[in-house]
Amino acid sequence: MGSKEKVPEEDVNLPYFHGALMNQDADQLLVNDGDFMVTMKLQADINKLQFFLAVRLKKGVRRYEIKRTPTSAKLVNRSAGTIEKLIEKLKTDPVEVKGEKVILKRAIAKGKFQLMHKDVIFKKKIGAGAYGTVYRGRLVKTNEVIAVKKLDPEGTDQDGLAEMMKEARVMQLYDHPNIVKFHGFILDDLPYLLVLEFCNGGAVEDKLIDKGSRLSVPTRVQYIYMASCGIEYLHKKNCIHRDIASRNCLIHKGIVKIADFGMCRAQSVYKMDLTKPCNLRWLAPEVWDTGETRFNTDIYAFGIMMWEFFEIPYATPYTDMKAGQVKRKTRAGYRLPPPAAMPKEIAEIMKECCIPEADKRPNAEKLKELLEEVAKKITETQSASIAAPVTTEPTVKSKTDTPKSKLSKVSKIDPPKAKK
């Protein structure tokens, strides 16, 4: 349950007040002897906020509780009317705790991704995520439309915050046209928030459901190509997404962007707990033996997502099977047959992505190259074998007029506008 106690405004506005920043994140910012910041933590059992002075000393980072009341702030035997005045007093008159003199030298200010509640305006609820509710809003400074993920009240314990910060740590590393942009996180008071790019076209899964056969095959090819650009970027950054599916691809102004980094890990191998729930229908079968997710398990999931992109009308993969049956059959070698609307070239790539020998699957760079070739061919022959509605489709430039180093610039494609 969330606390009704509010952080005093004079504390929130301190440049070195980092709110509920977790210890592992704070420790990375406290680099030199004497570096310090003020943080807070929700004490769940009594539903009360606690404040701490975090400072790096010679023997490591220390955290000292600041006893805060509406009219005072106290640390050990030093007190003042506010935290700011207390810090100023401690700078000139250091306190000694358990034989260590707490010397404050450099206040560590918030980083560029640490926003404040006053920086965003909530507008409308637009959905729900793994650990909270998603709203459309605006950044006060730029008036830019944003998506705000709010950690739900029952998620304000340390476990909920930890899950949110896993996503924040990964997302702030990446910047690419086919990755949902990360604006920052907000921890200065409850509720805790993630601030992301707002995608006006919604999820690809919803587009596939809503438009059905009215979404042409060339457009579907462009969508899967753009998704491959995002995955190639992530893999080059040594990141496994671990939740590739059409529901986690968003569309903004016709551009497909990889989203939902809650399960993402910035490492090349990640050992998962197979006793916990997982997205079994997209999970590479060898994971049941090794427990390990890798780049090639992402590629397998991408192959299943390719099936999603071309199944008309849309259906969940293996829709006629229960989860246990999917597990048994895929481990025995069964694979989804290509949908009727899937071009044969795409079907061949899907087959390669899902072959049992994980090390023989194409890597993300090769996958993108293969899909680019098909996208170019399909664009040039839109009127061929598969009937599609007459519409203005996005195009992929040929390699003769697009340097290879700029193939990821698919944000210049101008596809049909999303249905309102």
UniProtKB/TrEMBL annotation:
Keyword DNA damage: no
Amino acids binding ATP: K150
Any one GO molecular function term: non-membrane spanning protein tyrosine kinase activity
Domain of life: Eukaryota
Biased composition (Basic and acidic residues): 411-420
Pfam family, one: PK_Tyr_Ser-Thr
Family annotation (InterPro entries): Fes/Fps/Fer_SH2, Kinase-like_dom_sf, Non-receptor_tyrosine_kinases, Prot_kinase_dom, Protein_kinase_ATP_BS, Ser-Thr/Tyr_kinase_cat_dom, SH2, SH2_dom_sf
Coiled-coil intervals: none
Protein kinase domain residues: 120-371
Keyword tags: ATP-binding, Kinase, Nucleotide-binding, Transferase, Tyrosine-protein kinase
Catalysed conversion reaction: L-tyrosyl-[protein] + ATP = O-phospho-L-tyrosyl-[protein] + ADP + H(+)
PROSITE patterns: PROTEIN_KINASE_ATP, PROTEIN_KINASE_DOM, PROTEIN_KINASE_TYR
Region Disordered: start-end pairs: 381-420
EC number of the protein: 2.7.10.2
SMART domains linked: SH2, TyrKc
The family this protein is said to belong to: Belongs to the protein kinase superfamily. Tyr protein kinase family.
Protein name (database record): Tyrosine-protein kinase
Organism of this sequence: Caenorhabditis brenneri
